[in-house]
Amino acid sequence: MSVTTRTGDGGYSRLLTGERVSKGCFRLEAYGTVDELNAVIGVVMAEDGSDKFPLGDLQKLLFLIGSDLATPEDSQVNIKRVSPDDVKIIDEWIAELESALPELKRFILPSGSKLGSFLHLARTVCRRAERCTVRLSEKEKINEQIHIFLNRLSDYLFLCARQANRVEGSETEI
To answer: Could you list the residue range(s) of the whole structural domain that residue 65 is in?
Structure first.
């Protein structure tokens, strides 16, 4: 089977429900940005980030978010959705890193080591994904746990960047 289906050539895509929607709709923008974030996490992993942080687990959670966003809440399609337990996982990761890092007293530049810089990039893409899901939620009902998860995830990625830069001795305060 070819990956080229030609069904999207006219600017439309199919949701998990089978419904065809414009590739410019808020829903596709939201889960497309989550997919972009997942790809950036893959770059972080290629920089040995998976040795320092549970990024493989994070990628699986991002796929869960993508399928949740690709399936309208009121559909009859039965999928696993993002839950408070998934948010709890991020909260635990945050608590672990916060306990290992010194208190932040100033702003820091989104730079530093290569790994830290890629993590800052992931954080900014995560914030964009969050904004996209907010815009979608203003038009359609979506799982509220997605907002919470993405908000916490950007905090987690910030802490990961700080930790990576701290290990390399390259965190820059303003």
So the answer is: 17-71+80-168
Residue by residue, pLDDT tens for the chain (174 residues) are 777 777 777 788 887 788 888 888 899 999 999 999 999 999 999 987 678 899 999 999 999 999 999 999 888 889 999 999 999 999 999 999 999 998 888 888 898 899 999 999 999 999 999 999 999 999 999 999 999 999 999 999 999 999 999 988 876 666
Q: Count up the domains in the chain and report the number.
A: 1
CA–CA distance, 115 with 110 (Å, rounded to integer): 11
CA nearest to 30, candidates 127, 133, 128, 123: 133
- Looking up residue 140, the CATH number of its domain turns out to be 1.20.1200.10
